[in-house]
Amino acid sequence: MISGKAMKYGNNVNTDVIIPAKYLVLTLDPVELAKHAMESLDPLFSKKAQGGAIIVAGRNFGCGSSREEAPVALKHAGTKCVLAESFARIFYRNAINIGLPVLECPRISSKVEEGDELTVNLEAGVIENRSKNSTLQATRLPQFIMEILGDGGLIEHLRKQLK
Amino acid sequence: MNITEKILAKASGKKEVSPGEIVNAKVDMIMVNDLTGPLSVKTFRKIGVKKVWDNKKIVVDFDHLVPANSERAAELQRFMREFVKEQNIDHFYDIGRGGVCHQVMPEKGHVRPGELIVGADSHTCTYGAFGAFATGIGATDTAGVFATGALWLKVPSVIKVNVEGQFQSHVTAKDLILKIIGELKADGAIYKGLEFAGPTVRNMSIDGRMTMCNMAIEASAKNGIVEPDEITLNYVKERTNKSFQIVKNDPDVEYEKILDLDVTNMGSQVASPHSVDNVKPVSELGEVSINQAFLGSCTNGRIEDLRLACGLLKGKKVKDGVRMIVVPASQEIYLQALREGLLEIFLKAGAIVGNPTCGPCLGGHLGLLASGEVCVSASNRNFVGRMGSPKAYVYLASPATVAVSAVTGKITDPGQWRHNRR
Q1: Are B337 and B313 a contacting pair, CB within 8 Å?
Q2: How many whole angstroms separate alpha carbon B166 and alpha carbon B195?
Q3: Residue B418 has what pLDDT?
Q4: Which of A70, A112, A133, B104 could cross-link with A15 by S-S, CB 3.0 to 4.6 Å?
Q5: Separation of alpha carbons B85 and B229, rounded Å
Q6: Shortest distance, CA A20 to any CA of chain B (angstroms)
Q7: Residues B358-391: tens digit of each pLDDT
Q8: Contacts (Cβ under 8 Å, ≥6 apart) of B118
Q9: For residue A28, what pLDDT band results from cuts at 50, 70 and 90?
Q10: Is pLDDT larger for residue A21 or for residue B80?
Q11: Which residues span the domain enclosing A76?
């Protein structure tokens, strides 16, 4: 179970906004990257996400570049999970591969407000909005993706497999 | 099955696949560049495998920040050179040997019809222009492919874009793909493939097809693809000595959706800030003054693009107060432009010609924007902060529109401009 406060964003949040290219060359250090996460969209993001947040977004979250630093920056800023109406596929893969859970949930933007207290059951794909006393059903993740997430990401998963 | 399905079936050793199915696909080639390579290699080291699965199937290309624009970039490039040496990777294109990765891959014969190619860069979808299935991946997926030579892929459903009609003069493949993205919207092809077909695409050069497939990702497509034909084979056969198996559509294949377009009356198109799907005809844009005009990138840094721009710039001057930056996409294109006298035309017009690199496209170097500045760019993204300041404005357009706008100092329809000069 994952619990946290909702931080809401709109449609087509792109990876240049999540982490601008100028920081990619500066560092591979996730903690440094995290300081700049989402800064051009929401300068207070890294402060607000500290201690655990759940991002709630509209369609096509993470579109654009293939930079894996995007989910890395979000994760290390404190994001526990991203819930969106849809995801850009490279971001989606990258997030799972680094162990950041992502769930596709139709119409979530209209069902959750900024600051709502959410609890996510990844296995069942069920999102409980405790502030609104409502539940939402997200698209459940396939078993092999649950296994990758369970291992903490693709690298740990491969290490196990290749042993 | 359509081409995309057939290639995925072949790569996963299956007779048949259908949309939604998840396959474990073997990779024919994988590419990393200087910006995505370091994290990929760092991640590969964590898997605990000493050697890559096949050093002949890996391409390492330096393009994003070349020559190194900072000490940090230099360190990362050295790190990548050490990896290339350690793993005995032959297909390594260092500074001065290649250029922009998506140009270098086909140019150096690493893209063949029917192959499955992945790359640690979102514009890897460019190679669909050659009838290959090509898609972008992140660093951890890349590390996984380095170790195993395979990755899971979901078979996408495919939207067919059927194009007919002849372009008006100075209307290009770039205008067409902008128009398509404007219609589909930024998430219109999410999880899906895009296949470009019809007489207009059949008559299109390889350069134009590459521009189309390159921007498939801007509609969030997994891949863009063009069924291979004589034009494809003429290009590929000259550049590779490796055998390949051409994959074509079965007769009467079904698509998730077919988008029909006729370009006969289509004018030049522009995508206004800050999204690629914010598209309208240049003639309807209104007055937009510019500070910078950029011609280059994996989208529009090819020889045809440079020729088109030079045809319009010859004997003209870039407007005072406007900076025009031209970046040929590869050493080969640079040399060809030199031989054809194109560089002279650019220089006499008051443009600068940079070395092959991604340059300002992703806000790396060679022409970043200050706050409040406006750039008309032949590149592929106009997101907030993409080319420098988050308070700058990027308009995406064709090489012809970029060239003409550099002369007039405002975003100008090349067809209208030519008409007025008669």
Answers
A1: no
A2: 19
A3: 81
A4: A70
A5: 38
A6: 7
A7: 999 999 999 999 999 999 999 999 999 999 999 9
A8: B27, B29, B30, B31, B124, B134, B135, B136, B137, B141, B142, B145, B151
A9: confident
A10: B80
A11: 2-162
Question: Are residues A68 and B386, on separate chains, in Cβ contact within 8 Å?
Answer: no
Interatomic CA distance for residues B207 and B138, integer angstroms: 26
A 84-143 → B contacts, CB under 8 A: 86-90, 93-94, 97-98, 142
Residue that the structure tokens 């420098």 belong to? B388
3-state secondary structure of B274: coil
Closest-CA residue of A relative to B275 is A12
- How sure is the predictor about A64, in pLDDT bands with cuts at 50, 70 and 90? very high
Strands B292-295 and B374-377: parallel
Average pLDDT over residues B118-123: 98
Q: Residues of B numbered 56-85 whose beta carbons fall under 8 angstroms of chain A's beta carbons: which are they? A: 65, 70, 72-73, 76
What does the pLDDT average to over B71-80? 96
Domains and CATH numbers, chain B: 3-260 (3.30.499.10), 270-421 (3.30.499.10)
Read off the CATH number of the domain in which A36 is found.
3.20.19.10
Taking an 8 Å cut-off on Cβ atoms, the answer to whether B144 and A158 are in contact is: yes
Q: Which of B4, B122, B153, B194 to mutate to test the interface with A (most CBs of A within 10 A)?
A: B122
CA distance A160 to A156: 6
Report how far residue B176's alpha carbon sits from residue B261's, in angstroms, rounded to the nearest whole number: 9
ipTM of the complex: 0.95
**The total number of structural domains that make up chain A:** 1
Q: Using CB atoms, pick whichever of B35, B137, B217 lies closest to residue A93.
A: B137
pLDDT band of A108, cuts 50, 70, 90? very high
Which positions in chain A touch B49 (Cβ < 8 Å)? Answer: 162
The per-residue pLDDT for B419 is: 78
